[in-house]
């Protein structure tokens, strides 16, 4: 039997303005955010690439301003939400990420589909197309529709070269929470919070992710993560990003896994006694 692999914990995104004064020092320049982030984490999920095509200059600056940080990359919405991408858009996307893809610090592409994308033969054909177009790279897929929650789908995803993203989120209608299955070459976990009230009814997009996990909930998640196949590397990203709540929870989870952590002054001042509740 192979040895147990490490569990890496980080955040989904890092350049949120509302993290200033909570996680980042108030006087820290935005260009230094990633350098500061690296003081606390080894991995980062880059998500600006979902909204705009990456550029080699920006990606190169991430590598220059960090020394050991490793990155997963959320693919652009043209691949997952619009699903009408052209060969040119595929080329632009991959070319913009070239410095990272050649750096040895790339983890995987994240394909996060909306809940409206349900299971069908046509959907699986589309996923197969993505598998071909992103061949040669690690790929993790987040399927939010419960219609995908069956063993034959997981087997097909693995045969197409995808790792399945396990998620924690509110148990709302039609959402595939979990499923806490180890599918593919690596374990990829995204923790969105459990704000059931705002999951469908939020006026602002950030409200869905306005949630602070309790210590009890983190211990429950730790147990679920540890039950995944530990012969694979495991990556855990907190997406409850509002006011840096995900940063705090990520540091708390790292400590539960036995790592020595330092809670920044801003987080201590903001959350106070809630730190270890």
Ends apart, CA distance between termini? 38 Å
Rg to the nearest angstrom?
18 Å
Would you identify the CATH H-level superfamily? Protein of unknown function UPF0759
CATH architecture classification name: Alpha-Beta Barrel
At CATH level 3, the topology is TIM Barrel
Query: Helix-strand pattern, N to C?
Result: EHEHEHHHEHEHEEHHEHH
For the biggest sheet, the summary is:
8 strands, parallel, barrel
- Tell me the β content: 15-25%
Flag low-confidence runs.
none
Gross geometry? globular
CATH class: Alpha Beta
Overall SS class:
alpha/beta
Q: How much helix, percentage-wise, in residues? A: 25-40%
Strand order of the largest sheet: 1-2-3-4-5-6-7-8
Mean pLDDT: 95
- Domain module count: 1
Q: What is the tally of beta strands?
A: 8
Task: Give a quick precis of the structure.
34% of the residues lie in helices and 16% in strands.
Give structural notes.
- With 277 residues, the protein is an alpha/beta fold.
- The protein has a single domain, classed as Protein of unknown function UPF0759 (TIM Barrel).
- 34% of the residues lie in helices and 16% in strands.
- It contains eleven helices and eight strands.
- An eight-stranded parallel beta barrel has the order 1-2-3-4-5-6-7-8.
- Strand 2 (43-46), helix 2 and strand 3 (70-74) form a beta-alpha-beta unit.
- Helix 9 (215-226) crosses helix 10.
- It is globular.
- The relative contact order is 0.15.
């Amino acid at each position: 039997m192979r040895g147990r692999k490490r569990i890496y914990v980080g955040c989904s995104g890092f350049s949120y303005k509302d993290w200033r004064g909570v996680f980042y020092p108030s006087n820290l320049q935005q260009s230094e955010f990633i350098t500061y982030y690296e003081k606390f984490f080894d991995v980062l999920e880059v998500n600006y690439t979902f909204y705009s095509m990456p550029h080699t200059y920006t990606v190169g600056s991430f590598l220059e301003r960090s020394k050991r940080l490793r990155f997963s990359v959320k693919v652009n919405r043209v691949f997952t939400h619009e699903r009408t991408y052209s060969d040119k858009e595929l080329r632009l996307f991959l070319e913009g990420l070239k410095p990272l893809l050649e750096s040895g610090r790339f983890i995987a592409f994240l394909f996060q589909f909306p809940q409206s994308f349900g299971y069908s033969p046509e959907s699986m054909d589309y996923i197969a197309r993505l598998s071909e177009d992103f061949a040669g790279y690690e790929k993790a897929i987040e399927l939010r529709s419960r219609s995908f929650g069956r063993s034959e789908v997981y087997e097909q995803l693995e045969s197409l070269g995808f790792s399945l993203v396990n998620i924690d989120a509110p148990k709302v209608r039609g959402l595939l929470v979990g499923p806490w299955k180890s599918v593919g070459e690596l374990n990829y976990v995204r923790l969105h919070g459990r704000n059931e009230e705002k999951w469908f009814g939020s006026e602002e997009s950030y409200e869905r992710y306005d949630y602070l996990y309790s210590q009890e909930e983190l211990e429950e998640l730790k147990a679920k993560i540890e039950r995944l196949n530990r012969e694979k590397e495991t990556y855990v990203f907190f997406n409850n990003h509002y006011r840096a709540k995900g940063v705090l929870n990520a540091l708390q989870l790292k400590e539960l896994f036995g790592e020595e952590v330092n809670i920044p002054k801003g987080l201590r001042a903001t959350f106070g006694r809630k730190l270890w509740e």
